[in-house]
Structure formats: C-alpha cells, structure tokens
Design the sequence.
C-alpha cells in the first residue's frame, strides 16, 4: 500500500515556512508579538493571534536554548572574543554591549559559539562569559 499525504498539507506547510521565518526574524529583532501580528496581517493578509505568534517564537527560543547550552570541544586553534555596542530598544533606545565568541576550526572555517548581551562592557561580564564557556567544556 502506498503512502497517502494530502497535497493541501504540503501547500500549507510551504506557505507557513516563510511565515515562521518572518516571525523568527522579527522576534529576534526585538518586536513584540503584537507588532508581529500586525506585520503578518499586512504582508500575508493572514491574521495570526498573539498566541500563534507566541507558539512560533517559542520554537525559536527552544532552538536558541539548544545552541546556547551545547557542549564545546576542549580546544580550538583560534578563539576571538569581542564586544560591540548596538542601539537596542527596551523601554527606550540605548547602546548595549553585545559580546561575540567566534572560533576558527582546524579546517579554517569559523563558527560563533557564544553571543551575549549586557547593558555595558565590563571585566565582570567577560569573566561570566569565560566561566560559561568553561562550563560548556572549553579548556
């Protein structure tokens, strides 16, 4: 007996993938679920409820948690640690420190292994980052 898979489900899935990606991108940029709901309505003509947007963005949160908590190798040939200030909207717009930890692998490819945010750059926060990397397996 062959597999039966309704064509409509594939069409709906193909349409929801770009919508999910848009929701992820907007959420990552700091928009609220209400903002995302309004934008998807204008672009797609599709009303997403606040709870639908929350469910979509929660999947992103789960993937991010796996990324942040994944185990690291003990050694990498090159590790870059740097911070930059980016205008960030919370209750008001202010410059906040974004810390990036980038590694270079033996095949010379690069990978971000950590990304952190704090109101300002400080030695204490750099220490927290290093402790986090150590806890994840880096020696």
Sequence:
């Amino acid at each position: 007996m062959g597999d039966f898979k309704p064509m409509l489900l594939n069409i709906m899935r193909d349409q929801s993938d770009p919508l999910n990606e848009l929701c992820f991108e907007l959420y990552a940029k700091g928009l609220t679920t209400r903002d995302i709901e309004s934008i998807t309505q204008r672009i797609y003509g599709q009303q997403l409820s606040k709870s639908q947007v929350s469910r979509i963005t929660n999947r992103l949160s789960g993937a991010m948690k796996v990324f942040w908590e994944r185990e690291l190798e003990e050694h990498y040939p090159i590790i870059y640690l740097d911070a930059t200030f980016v205008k960030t909207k919370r209750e008001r717009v202010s410059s906040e420190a974004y810390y990036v930890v980038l590694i270079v692998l033996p095949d010379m490819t690069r990978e971000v292994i950590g990304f952190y945010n704090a109101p300002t750059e400080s030695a204490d926060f750099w220490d927290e980052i290093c402790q986090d990397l150590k806890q994840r397996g880096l020696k």
Observations:
- The radius of gyration is 20 Å.
- The chain has two domains: 7-69, 78-135.
- The chain has a mean pLDDT of 80.
- Residues 7-69 form one domain.
